[in-house]
Amino acid sequence: QVQVVESGGGSVQAGGSLRLSCIVSGLTFGDINMGWFRQAPGKEREGVSCIKWSGSIFYDLDSVKGRFTISRDNAKNTLYLQMNSLKPEDTAIYYCAAAGSCADGSGGRTFPYWGQGTQVTVSS
Question: How far apart are CA 2 and CA 19, in angstroms?
Fold first, then answer.
């Protein structure tokens, strides 16, 4: 049984930092691509960043480049998203997804496994 569990969300003021974590079980973590997605109220889900099994990294949003860093620890079956210099427009539910394509471009339709989401709220 596959499980994807996010943690690390919360409420911060603009300019603050958070680190999201995502632990995956039931899959060979080192063999799969992993992605972070987010969905803000009233908006469609969008890709934030993706890291391939090989370690190649993609940032889907220009707005997060230089502020967010995706990484993975294959020994711990864990995906991370370090978010610095947070802005109110980063407020969203953040989802971790497993085993999809980093060329997804579709808001995650190629990813079959999803976590429950973790809320990130950034106040001005």
Answer: 23
